[in-house]
Recover the amino acids of this structure.
């Protein structure tokens, strides 16, 4: 059974930093692309970032490019999201997600999701 | 980027009724690369349909998807109590992947 467990959320001031982590189990972590998707309170879903199975390719939404960095550790089966220069509009639940095996050439969808971790950016 | 518009915003129905949810794209979705998710309060999204019409593992056959180009539909043939939730469509034919704003299916 796929399990994805996020941690690291919390309250941070505008301009501050936070590092989210996701512990993955129940599948061969090194063979799947992984993503972060967020959901602002009472709002819809927004893709944030994706990292390839090898970690060699990363993609970011324009809204976080230059501020967030996605990474993965295949020895620990963990996915991380380093978030810098945080803004109020980054307040959301952040979901760790396992991307599907078969996708398009340019994008994908997520077949499994964690329960999320809440990030609140406020003074 | 492709904008997905879902309608209606809220659908009020009774258990046993048929639900039809719409997802319209601002431009054609390549090769019908469209999925549907279900989300219940306080829970993560759950994959229902991928590739426009293929049910994900464990999804009951009362859920079906259809469509092509810019118009896609999720149908729930007979609503069960556990089906009342918010449903999102998402396209993955173009980068970035984008989501619709959601349709809430509520008990009438």
């Amino acid at each position: 059974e796929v399990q994805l467990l996020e941690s690291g959320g919390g309250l941070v001031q505008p301009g501050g930093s936070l590092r989210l982590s996701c512990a993955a189990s129940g599948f061969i972590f090194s063979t799947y692309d992984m993503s972060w998707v967020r959901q602002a309170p009472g709002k819809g879903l927004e893709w944030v970032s994706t990292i390839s199975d090898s970690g060699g390719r990363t993609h970011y939404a324009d809204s976080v490019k230059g501020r967030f960095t996605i990474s993965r550790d295949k020895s620990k089966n963990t996915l991380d999201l380093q978030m810098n220069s945080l803004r109020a509009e980054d307040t959301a639940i952040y979901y760790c997600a396992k991307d599907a095996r078969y996708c398009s050439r340019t994008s994908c969808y997520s077949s499994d999701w964690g329960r999320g971790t809440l990030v609140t950016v406020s003074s | 980027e492709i904008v997905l518009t879902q309608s209606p915003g809220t659908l009020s129905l009774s258990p046993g009724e048929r639900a039809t949810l719409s997802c319209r794209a601002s431009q054609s979705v390549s090769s019908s690369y469209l999925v549907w998710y279900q989300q219940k309060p306080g829970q993560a999204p759950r994959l229902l349909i991928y590739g426009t019409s293929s049910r994900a593992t464990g999804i009951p056959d009362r859920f079906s998807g259809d469509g092509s180009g810019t118009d896609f539909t999720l149908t729930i043939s007979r609503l069960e109590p556990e089906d009342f939730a918010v449903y999102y469509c998402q396209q993955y034919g173009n980068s970035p992947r984008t989501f619709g704003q959601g349709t809430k299916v509520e008990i009438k």
Summary: The mean pLDDT of chain B is 96. Chain B is about 0% helix and 50% strand.
